[in-house]
């Protein structure tokens, strides 16, 4: 699956309606963003079951602010609608693949239950 540009209107539905979603927050003037784009796109071809979304922080400033994006590129990951990663900086291909495997292995339901038990 190729990457998909999403807007603020599509953001919530995208993360809620898909098992794993990776979101690349970027801007056209950002050198590291341009360097990371081919890595992100190549990874999307290897993992067709994952949604690879891109958010242009210039066009979607309110969404970037709501997501508390302080540096770009920033990669966010969601599993079953739950945020599981927020990492600034471009990643090399091997590091991105490692993160994807960690996200796949993460039992988000058990993590949420453990967090809720700790708050009781």
Automatic annotation (TrEMBL):
Gene Ontology molecular function, alphabetical: protein-disulfide reductase activity
Taxonomy, superkingdom: Bacteria
Residues of the active site: 30, 33
Pfam assignment, any one: Thioredoxin
CDD domains reported in the protein's UniProt record: TRX_family
Family, as annotated: Belongs to the thioredoxin family.
Protein name per Swiss-Prot or TrEMBL: Thioredoxin
């Amino acid at each position: 699956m190729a990457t998909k540009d999403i807007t603020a209107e599509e953001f919530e539905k995208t993360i809620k309606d898909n098992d794993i979603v990776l979101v690349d927050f970027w801007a056209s003037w950002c050198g590291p963003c341009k360097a990371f784009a081919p890595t992100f796109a190549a990874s999307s071809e290897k993992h067709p079951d994952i949604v690879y979304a891109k958010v242009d922080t210039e066009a979607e400033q309110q969404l970037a602010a709501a997501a508390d994006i302080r540096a770009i590129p920033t990669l966010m990951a969601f599993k079953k609608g739950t945020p599981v990663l927020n990492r600034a900086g471009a990643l090399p291909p091997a590091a991105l693949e490692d993160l994807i495997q960690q996200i796949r292995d993460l039992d988000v339901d058990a993590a949420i239950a453990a967090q809720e038990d700790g708050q009781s």
